[in-house]
Amino acid sequence: MTSRVRWSAAIAGTVAVCGWVSAFGTAAADRPFPAAGAGAGAEGTTPRARTDSGGALSRNAAHPESAAAPESAVPPESAAPRETAAPPESAAPESGAAGEPAAPRRVDCAHAKCVALTFDDGPGPYTAKLLDILAARHVRATFFLVGTNARAYPKLVRRERAEGHVVANHSWDHADLRRRSAAGVRSELARTQRAIERAGGGTPTLMRPPYGSTNGTVASVARGLGLAQILWTVDPLDWKDRNTALVTKRVVRGARPGYIILSHDIHRTTVNAVPAIIARLKAKGYVFVTVPELFSGHLKPGHKYFKRPR
Ligand SMILES: [Zn+2]
């Protein structure tokens, strides 16, 4: 019974985050994407430009994370969480339980056909299944965690790190950081750093601004906290179209060497797409790397990155 209560609370937290996303989505969608190329490494490449190659990908590419439709406020999967769910976790972080990261790999993305899978907004009910899928295929990814969920699912945070994935910062409660003061941005990011550290996920060196919404203040605070800003080049709109086949097709068609693929492990349809995405991209010769591996570790705090420079 206790675990059910805890689980319900965790699900409620996830739904609340999604509702928050929607609440800000409409306004945010009206604004243009932040100027690209302001940071070194961005190479003047906007997500719009890059996703144009993917056909359907370009529809909402100007502000991919922002245009959350009202119906996404309560994800369909939230109605029946216990069917597929990861085991509930204690809400209390387990102090002192620092996860040991997996051994680093040597991947030369200057020569290999690298692509970075990234998963935002978790951990959530489908993250454990995703980790099983990735482990079975020896694929490493990068997870951008919402602080409230890192606090709710410390074991998943630790597991992500222990299995060789990179754990990164996606703000405390999925805030539109451009609407915050410098102190507000610092609070969003620093609080999430602490939650991830406490969960045993290490100290992140990467952040992704929710909705891709960033500015000079965000860059400055990120720099102060030692966080590079990681945007993306392929957006399969998996938050909007909860369709496994469609998400798979968009990712596979949109991928190019050096690209960063955005997706969300809080959606069951996305997690279900991952086996086919991996199989089809592997068949095309792609190697799956984490974001630091994609850039050979050359990421500067505060700077924005959309893809590996050619
Ligand atoms: Zn997000």
Structure overview:
The protein is an alpha/beta fold and 310 residues long. It has a single domain (2-67, 99-305), classed as Alpha-Beta Barrel (TIM Barrel). The protein contains 11 helices and 8 strands. The strands form 2 sheets. Strands 1, 2, 3, 6 and 7 form a 5-stranded parallel sheet that branches. Strands 4-5-8 form a 3-stranded parallel sheet, covered by helices on one side. Strand 4 (206-207), helix 8 (216-224) and strand 5 form a beta-alpha-beta unit. The longest helix is centred in the first third of the chain and has 28 residues, at 2-29. The N and C termini lie far apart (54 Å). The structure holds zinc ion. Zinc ion (ZN) binds next to loops.
Short recap of the structure:
This protein is α/β, with parallel strands linked by helices and 310 residues long. It has eleven helices and eight strands.
Detail the topology: elements first, then pairings.
Elements: H1 2-29, H2 47-51, H3 81-84, E1 114-120, H4 127-136, E2 142-145, H5 147-152, H6 154-162, E3 166-169, H7 182-199, E4 206-207, H8 216-224, E5 228-230, H9 244-254, E6 259-264, H10 268-283, E7 287-288, H11 291-294, E8 304-305
Parallel strand pairs: 1-2, 1-6, 1-7, 2-3, 4-5, 5-8
Helix pairs in contact: 4-10, 7-8, 9-10
The structure holds zinc ion (ZN).
Zinc ion binds at residues 65, 120-121, 170, 174, 210.
